[in-house]
Each structure stands twice: as C-alpha cells, then as structure tokens.
Amino acid sequence: MKRVHVLEFEDLDWFPGWLRTCITNNIVIMARFLGVRHALSPLITTALQRSEARQVVDLGSGAGGVMPEVIQTVRTASGMEDVTLLLSDKFPDRPMIERLASEPQEGLRYLPDSVDATRLEAAPEGLKTMVNCFHHMRPNEARAILASAIEQRQPILIYEMGGHQTVPFILWLLTLPLGLTLVFLMAFVKSAFVRPVTPQQLIFTYLIPLIPLFYAWDGQASMPRIYSADDLDELLSGLEDSNYVWEKGYGQSRSGGKLGTYLMGSPKQECP
Ligand SMILES: C[S@@+](CC[C@H](N)C(=O)[O-])C[C@H]1O[C@@H](n2cnc3c(N)ncnc32)[C@H](O)[C@@H]1O
Q1: Which of 6, 66, 164, 166 has its CA 20 to 30 A from that of 262?
Q2: Mean pLDDT over all residues of the chain?
Q3: Are residues 57 and 140 both part of a single domain?
C-alpha cells in the first residue's frame, strides 16, 4: 500500500477540543468553497436508494462539515423528504451540539457521546457516512470497518474531498514547504468566513496563529494518508461477499470535473 500515515495533531487525545473545532470549522469553509455539496448529494441519494435506509449516520462529523447542507439537498429528491441526519464523532463537537440544542433543525441531531468509527457495529442503524474521515483510520482499522459493514449488512459511503489529487510521497515531501505556506496563508482567509465566529477563532488565527499552523499541518498530512483506488482494492481484497456490492469512483463538481473520491458499499436487497 502506497499510503503513508503521517501524524495529524487532530488524532491525539490531548489535542484541545476548542482547537479541533476551529480547525474543522475551516474544513467546512474549504468544502463549501469547492462545492462538495454538489459532489456528495447525488452519492448519498444513490446510497439511500440502494439500501432503502432513511437515516444517515455520519461518523467523524467534526463541526458538522457540509453534511447538514447535503441532507437538505437530498431531501428535495422524490421519496427522500423524510431522510434524517445523525452527526457523531469520536470527539463530539460541543459548540455544534449546543447550537443544535438552542436552534433545533428538523431531522438533524448530533450524538453527544463519543462514537468511534472503528466500532461500526455499535453505531446506530442507517447509512453510515465518513466524510474526510476515513484517512484517519490505519489500514487494519479501515479494513475492519469495511468488514463490519458487510457483516452487519449496513450501507456505507466513504468520501474524501482531496482524494482525486494523490501524488507520490516523495513529491509530497518535496513540495511540503510550499504546501504548508499556502495552506497556512489560506487559513487567514477561511477563518474570516466561519459562522458563527467565536473570539477563539479570531484570536488564534489573527493574533496567535495556532489555527493556521495546525490547519496547515493536518491538511498537508492528510494528503498521503488518503486511500487511493488501489489501496481501497487492497483493503477489500478477501472481503468479497456475494450479498454486498462495492462501487468506487470520483465525485463530480458542479462544472463536471473530479471532486474527491468515494467508496460506496450496499447490501444487496433480498428478493421478496
Ligand atoms: C478532517 S475531520 C472531518 C470533519 C467533517 N467530516 C468534515 O468533513 O468537515 C476528521 C474528523 O474525524 C474524527 N475522527 C478521527 N478518528 C475518528 C474515529 N476513530 N471515530 C470517529 N471519528 C473520528 C475527528 O475527530 C475529526 O472530527
């Protein structure tokens, strides 16, 4: 497998929750800017249609990502009006949980307890989604998640917004100083678009730039971690099951270009 599990600070148990929130806030802005909603909505609609699930259980939701917006789009499709979304994370995002408690949105909840994606069997029933989260899993964990989906006959959709741009590790290393600088600078722009914005987001972007620093490192470190199409085949090798189907491919941007990669797993529907 070509993938390299470079350290991401977000994964560390001691990493402060408020800093993780600020960083994932910036990921949401990036996803909006790229138009991830347009790539993800049709994939989720297809996964729901194939499985007949009506609840989406998002794992590794962070600050929610674009999933709440994606579900609004999904609900506009015929027969999808009642689809609900359950957000969750190993490190649940307290500000988002509090916001949803004070301003409830129909069909949208965030589980306050930690949900570990590596224990897929313990997650609530429904279509499991992992958006920009699967690269946090080491290969043994990633394979166990896929095996568990098959075993539990649970549909799953894995999506990585940066997945279509994989480069050899050596090239990643050589371009790292430039990549870090660009992403560091971009964080100053992104933090300005975070809503609702908190004093922490502003102070630790513009006065003490911890957010740009960690956002740049984790963003760059995630690139060599993303499973390529070949890596996914390697993970799935030996897990073949005649009652479960896998499909992988690229997300499609509004302009028709590639935007991210996906792996969709669906249990075959039983004949009546
Ligand atoms: C890069 S963020 C993506 C957040 C969000 N899905 C988005 O697209 O904006 C990755 C998220 O995965 C979460 N995560 C990491 N390991 C996890 C695990 N084993 N189980 C559940 N969530 C996990 C992190 O806490 C973090 O919020």
Answers
A1: 6
A2: 95
A3: yes
**Is there a single domain that holds both residue 85 and residue 58?**
yes
Same domain, 127 and 261: yes
Whole-number pLDDT of residue 271: 66
Instruction: Give the tokens for residue 172.
Output: 């990643």
Q: What are 89-148's pLDDT values in tens digits?
A: 999 999 999 999 999 999 999 999 999 999 999 999 999 999 999 999 999 999 999 999
d(CA 35, CA 197): 21
Residue 81 exposed, middle or buried by CB count within 10 Å (0-12, 13-18, 19+): exposed
Ligand 1 pocket, residues with Cβ under 6 angstroms: 10, 24, 27-28, 31, 59-62, 65, 89-91, 116-118, 131-133, 136
Ramachandran quadrant class, 198 (left: phi over 0; alpha: psi -120 to 50; beta: rest): beta
Give the domain extent around 252: 35-166+226-267
For 28-62, what is each residue's pLDDT tens digit? 999 999 999 999 999 999 999 999 899 999 999 99
Report the atom number in ligand 1 closest to the C-alpha of 58.
Answer: 6
Q: Which of 218, 223, 237, 245 is nearest to 12 (CA)?
A: 218
Q: Which atom of ligand 1 is nearest to the CA of 222?
A: 1
CA-nearest residue for atom 24, ligand 1, is 60
